[in-house]
Amino acid sequence: MDYVHVLQAFYEVLKPANLFYLFIGTLAGIIAGTIPGLTFTTAIILALPFTFGMDPISGLTLMIGIYTGGASGGLVTSTLIGIPGTPSAVTTMFDGHPMSQKGESGRALGLGIIASVFGTIFGAIILFFFGPLVAKISLKFGPWEVFSLMVFALTLIAGLSGASLLKGLIAGLFGLLIATIGYDPNGQLRFDFGMDSLASGIAPLPALMGLFGLSTLLKNIEELRNPISKPKTKANIRIPMLQVCKDMIREKFVVVQSSIIGVLIGALPAAGAETAAFIAYDQAKKFAKDKEKYGTGHPGGIIASEASNNANAGGSFIPSITLGIPGDMASAVMLGVLILHGITPGPGLFQAQPVLAQSIFVALLLSAFMLLITQTALLPLLVRISYIPMAVLVPSVIVFSCLGAFALNNQMVDVWMVVIFGLIGYVLDKIDVPIGPIILGLLLGPKAEEELMKALQINSEITPFFTHPISLIFLLLTVSSIVVTIWKSRKSKTIIKEE
């Protein structure tokens, strides 16, 4: 390990100008992640033109700040108003919003911030010490392995199904069905119902904002009409650091486990932070002694989601800088910054530009501390969202959600999707059908289908799914997960009958 180049990288990133870029990037990322519909990937794309006049290290520092801030920023609206700012913050909402409704917004946001910081640091350290090794492992993931991973991830539907496994499975299949609308990976149009606006499929973010956001707001409108409804509990502005530290120590296994999952999933091209968050949340719940409290405001649920999606950032840089293969869309844009400056990402980067390569690790590490400072400083302002009267908050959020949806593709169809899925979510809530499995199917379905098509185009037989060791391992885990879920379901029904 050439520590001289690491020290030089610290010297470069710690220059006042680059620290300023890191701060601006982190602040922009937090704001972008907080606004539903405006993801940090969009913010990175918008920032790309500003990097043309910068040197490569300054440009990367700005974008890494946006990446880290955006990955954590989604927890704010997820916690305070129950609308995921980013797809990876869906699982944060499962426990963050119930905790906020109990008047513990400060605790929920504090847990999210600290878990995000830890996940970012963990991802940076793994990138520094084990980047090339993890990259070699990720190279072994072909379409067969990634498809099997997606299939395994889809079995997490059971963990999000609540009391009724059947309703959860139906919801998951509904999500998969929605994901089939539009062009398939082979370019064949399907289920568009003769509407040109559905040819490109249904974007996940409008569906997210509708299912979780608008449906929640409709329920809040009901509470406003209910004369016996209790007034909204005021949120605690301060972070109860002692309580948060106790929670983090109590859930230390969840912190480490979720960070590892985030890094490993991030190292797989196109797997995505939302995949990492769902898997980390499910695993945390499975190993918890009080798993029945998940979904009601459990600290472990917030920690698992935020630690994994921020650790995912470090993981996504591993294939990017060691192999030249972007781990996700955001890292692909950052690779574009290097290419625009005449630098070729890949194994030779460490020999040709060692200081630049190490500066990515340094910027990622320092962005964790910048995130801690910036988001904590903004917290008193952000938490005041919960003080806004519901009669003002509801119409305002609806308007901004529709604006955010329209801004995605400048199409009114996305606004209509928010409304339609909001009504669907409202009805499903009335009949106790869980929303989580729908989102899981909607997010992972297209990725699974795309990898399946790639695999079958290479080899039309299904035997490689079982002869490739890594693919076989994931399929065995899938079967095991299904068997355990059925066994637990029957066991719980037996206990209920005996009682």
TrEMBL record:
Transmembrane segments: 20-48, 60-83, 108-134, 146-178, 198-218, 253-281, 317-343, 355-373, 385-408, 415-445, 465-487
Domain DUF112: 19-440
Keyword Membrane in annotation: yes
Keywords of the record: Membrane, Transmembrane, Transmembrane helix
Top-level taxon of origin: Bacteria
Name the record gives this protein: Tat pathway signal protein
